[in-house]
Amino acid sequence: MEIVEFNRNQMETIKRTNILVTSQRKLVITSGQTSEIPLCAECSSSMIPAQISADYFGVSSRIIYRFIEQQRIHFVENKISEIHICIASAKEALELNP
Ligand SMILES: [Zn+2]
Q1: Which of 35, 47, 56, 59 could be stapled to 63 by a disulfide with Cβ–Cβ 3.0 to 4.6 Å?
Q2: Ligand 1 geometric centre to CA of 38 (Å)
Q3: pLDDT in tens, 18-74
Q4: How far is the CA of 47 from the centre of ligand 1 (A)?
């Protein structure tokens, strides 16, 4: 957006440029093999890696790990110690105690 002002005292043209900057975050969840993403054994909901779930829900990772420790959300740990959490139970836990 460009605004041109005329300054009477100095008889000169002042050119002002306003730049509007917006940003948007897009979280893309990918996996090398879709079969690696498990479904929740308790409620069949989709699961996501715990380390990206905080971004997914817009909360701190401490909250997610606290829910895991308190067993308030469904989760699984695979052979290489990666934790996946159940999206449905995490959503429910966050609604009850954000
Ligand atoms: Zn579940």
Answers
A1: 59
A2: 11
A3: 777 776 666 666 555 444 667 999 999 999 999 899 999 999 999 999 999 999 999
A4: 8
